[in-house]
Amino acid sequence: METKNVMIVGVGGQGSLLASKLLGKLLTQEGFDVKVSEVHGMSQRGGSVVTYVRFGDKVYSPVISKGEADFIVSFEKIEAARYADTLKKGGKIIVNSQMIDPMPVITGAAQYPEGVLDELKEKGVFVDEIDALSLAQQAGNAKSVNIVLMGRLAKYFDIAYDKWVEAIKVSVKPQFVDVNLKAFDLGYNY
Q1: Where do the domains of the chain lie?
Q2: What distance in Å separates the CA atoms of residue 118 and residue 132, rounded to the nearest whole number?
Q3: Tens digit of pLDDT for each residue in 1-48?
Q4: CATH node for 4-188
Q5: pLDDT in tens, 135-190
Q6: Which of 54, 133, 141, 160 has the highest count of CB atoms within 10 angstroms of its CB?
Q7: Please, what is the Cα angle at 24 between 60 and 10, to 5 degrees?
């Protein structure tokens, strides 16, 4: 199997690291060679966080270069635009419609850019926008945005729903399993 590449991008504190670990665990259980790499920005200060998940028959490097990502899962609109050049032709961006102001916007030095997803679509990029925050709140915990997005990503994978459920059960703390399973289901069936 040709190596597949998934980038998970977001802002510190959104759960992108858990999402990448969940995906890595699932793919390993499916028999793939998997490499997961975490690139932390100023994650504790709301900065950009990027993780790479590469899988296939044999994967030699955990890093995804420009033009190689099959999927970008973005927890925020600006992050989708920031990493769009990493997407390969025919790749897909799954993006949470949430807008989180970066520090320059918070301090008043800049304005949040309007229409970033529209610009990507105009360039022919496949953008699957989902209101993951509302779905996470509906599931019972706003912090489950990451699992909502994993549910949406699962729609594009040829891996049985039940296998994703099992991976969630072993990846999250027992007290959060039910809310995360609901969040996954809401993202999957969006």
Answers
A1: 4-188
A2: 18
A3: 799 999 999 877 678 889 999 999 999 999 999 999 977 555 455 677
A4: 3.40.920.10
A5: 999 999 999 999 999 999 999 999 999 999 999 999 999 999 999 999 999 999 99
A6: 54
A7: 100
Using the structure block, give the residue that is written with the tokens 């529209």.
Answer: 118
Please tell me the distance from the alpha carbon of residue 32 to that of residue 74, in angstroms, as a whole number.
23
Phi-psi region of 94 (alpha: psi -120 to 50; beta: other; left: phi over 0): beta
The answer to whether 9 and 75 are in contact (CB under 8 A) is yes
3-state secondary structure of 5: strand
Note whether 80 and 86 are within 8 A (CB). no
The DSSP element (H or E) to which 82 belongs, if any, is helix 77-82
Listed in order, strand segments (DSSP E) in the chain are 4-11, 33-40, 48-56, 69-74, 87-96, 126-130
